[in-house]
Amino acid sequence: MITLVKGKLEIKMTGFVVIDVGGLGYKVFMSDNSIEKLGNIGDNVKVYTHHHVREDDISLYGFCTMEELRMFELLIGVSGVGAKTALTMLAVIDPSNFALAIISEDVATLTKIPGIGAKSAQRIILELKDKLKKENIDKNSTIQMIQPISGENKMQEAIEALQVLGYNRKEIEKAFSKLEKASLTTEELIRKGLNILSN
């Protein structure tokens, strides 16, 4: 399993890059947004990867952050969502807004993504929320089950959104202890929390 590729950026094309690692070129499929962030030809780069193996295809999908990788892996676990659709989603919505859309059941945000209709958006929300609930139960967690968003529980909403992206409650609470929480919206809590957690 290839989980990280670090080397010199040799080729940048629409939809993929080639990274030279010790003379071996890895073709890595990425969203165009991620490719733009990656750097220039000749730069040393680091890309988090998902090694996608199917009967008729073995591919590497690359991401600039662990949150993007986590979002991609969640999406391809949803029935009817393939790797290319998941990459398209990453080009349109960032992980924090994606997580917020899942916990708030925001179908409208997800349907802005090309190829995602209302039924697909509802299926993504349903399957990912169910998966998060099961993970919480499996870990004997005391975390409350996901509730629709209300203004009174923005802290809980932000915690749940970051859990969608793969962080556990203890590390999220530790990150939030460094923030001035009262003045922040749910989205600001998620974004600032991500900045702390990813460093």
Radius of gyration: 18 Å
Task: Give me the secondary-structure category.
Answer: alpha+beta
For the sheet with most strands, the description reads:
5 strands, mixed, barrel
Q: What do we call the CATH homologous superfamily of the domain at 67-128?
A: 5' to 3' exonuclease, C-terminal subdomain
Give the uncertain stretches in residue-range form: 137-152
The whole-number mean of residue pLDDT values reads: 83
Description:
- The chain has 199 residues and is α+β, with helices and mostly antiparallel strands.
- Helix content is 47%, strand content 20%.
- The chain has a five-stranded mixed barrel with strand order 1-2-3-5-4.
- Strand 2 (16-21) and strand 3 form a beta hairpin.
- The protein starts with a strand and ends with a helix.
- Residues 137-152 have low confidence and may be disordered.
Q: Would you kindly provide a brief summary of this structure?
A:
With 199 residues, the chain is α+β, with helices and mostly antiparallel strands. It has helices at 32-38, 66-76, 83-92, 95-103, 107-110, 118-138, 154-164, 169-176, 186-197, and strands at 4-13, 16-21, 24-29, 44-54, 57-63.
Topology:
Elements: E1 4-13, E2 16-21, E3 24-29, H1 32-38, E4 44-54, E5 57-63, H2 66-76, H3 83-92, H4 95-103, H5 107-110, H6 118-138, H7 154-164, H8 169-176, H9 186-197
Parallel strand pairs: 3-5
Antiparallel strand pairs: 1-2, 1-4, 2-3, 4-5
